[in-house]
Amino acid sequence: MSAPPLNVKAHVDFIAALDKKKNDYEYWLTEQAVLNGIYWGLTALFLLGAPDTLVREDVIQFVVDCWDSKTGGFAGNIGHDAHLLYTLSAIQILATYDALDRVDTDRVVEYVCSLQLPGGAFQGDRFGEVDSRFSFCALACLTLLGKQDSCDVPAAVDFVVRCKNFDGGFGSVPGAESHAGQVFCCVGALALTNSIDKHIDRDHLGWWLAERQLPNGGLNGRPEKLADARPPLMLPLPACPSARLAAPFPHADTRAHVCTFVLRMRRPWLPQVCYSWWCLSALTILDRLHWISAEPLSNFILNAQALEDDQYSRESANKLSGQALDDAQDHGGIADRPGDRPDVFHTLFGVAGLSLLKYPGLEPVDPLFCMPLKVTQRLGLAKEKY
Ligand code: GRG
């Protein structure tokens, strides 16, 4: 399948406009995770070669304002609860802008270490959820701050190793199904602690990851998912003028928005652009990137761009919303898969995946931190080999 080239300008404009979309339903659905969104957008902008698009000082001040002085961690938005997921994003943003001196890093380290449990796992926040994602977040954060040794590293590694399955993949906790997202986190945690070869059979896991590629070139997140079965989704609900999220569907109101959002998040049988990142980064770390067919995957990602002449999303959204779409807002960005609406999460992971595939003109990305390679080189953290 052929594909259009990467439209750098459209994606830069799309990210730059995100902060102006405060009347959009999507904005408020993700209001608790704004810091993640800024990390995704900022990193994509750096990789696209447009690092000065956002106002540096405003972004840094927002990050500082998300710091929770009670715990020492960062919340996803001002006044919210601190969590490891947002703390990593905050540290990544500050590191990218070379502004780590703007926070009390000792207190951040204290916060991260306070979340480690006796068995080595990390909980995400004070409410106690345990997940191998949080092991990665904690270790990445401490490493970026030059303080990995402040936590119990052998115990952290031990927990991650206990998440490994017979198929070579990793799950969220010991015994949980292998999933590409968790594979990224566990491979990352082991790479951060220089323990890949002690605990991973590169060929075994490389094979599992390479098998994620489907006939259309895209990757899925776990085995036994077919490539071509969309569920029928016709909800007989009255139309709503603000229907944007539910764009490709004929009936839409708030309930339809929510159903559509949930179902879109859960169409696991279709490949998704973000797995280009979760799988490719792990394959790069394992030195098995060449086990993926690069061109069909690049085309899958490029076809998921929302471009100005993408009649599919524009026409269906127009029909539903009953109002003209604002050009500046409704093109640019990359969707989870071709034909869907774009978002900043898939824009980053699409661009970062293309960067790993050496798409011309993109800045190189560090496969371990998902940050511009120039930044991790400046911090002395970029690795030649894992
Ligand atoms: C610094 C890049 C970076 C990340 C920080 C939070 C984190 C560490 C990593 C998240 C890894 C992860 C679990 C990604 C998966 C995201 C995703 C698309 C989940 C969908 O899961 P399901 O079960 O769908 O809804 P599948 O496709 O698995 O059936």
TrEMBL record:
Question: Which intervals hold domain Prenyltransferase alpha-alpha toroid?
Answer: 6-229, 272-371
Q: Which reaction does it catalyse?
A: geranylgeranyl diphosphate + L-cysteinyl-[protein] = S-geranylgeranyl-L-cysteinyl-[protein] + diphosphate
Please give the Gene3D superfamilies that the UniProt record associates with this protein.
1.50.10.20
Q: What class of enzyme is it?
A: transferase
Q: What is its EC number?
A: 2.5.1.60
* One Pfam family linked to the record: Prenyltrans
Its Gene Ontology cellular component terms are: Rab-protein geranylgeranyltransferase complex
Q: Which cofactor does it need?
A: Zn(2+)
Concerning InterPro entries, the annotation shows:
PGGT1B-like, Prenyltrans, Ptb1, Terpenoid_cyclase/PrenylTrfase
Q: Which UniProt keywords apply?
A: Metal-binding, Prenyltransferase, Repeat, Transferase, Zinc
Tell me which CDD domains the record gives: GGTase-II
Q: Name one GO molecular function term.
A: Rab geranylgeranyltransferase activity
Bound cofactor: record note: Binds 1 zinc ion per subunit.
Which protein family is it in? Belongs to the protein prenyltransferase subunit beta family.
The record's function comment reads: Catalyzes the transfer of a geranylgeranyl moiety from geranylgeranyl diphosphate to both cysteines of proteins with the C-terminal sequence -XXCC, -XCXC and -CCXX.
Instruction: Please state what the protein is called.
Output: Geranylgeranyl transferase type-2 subunit beta
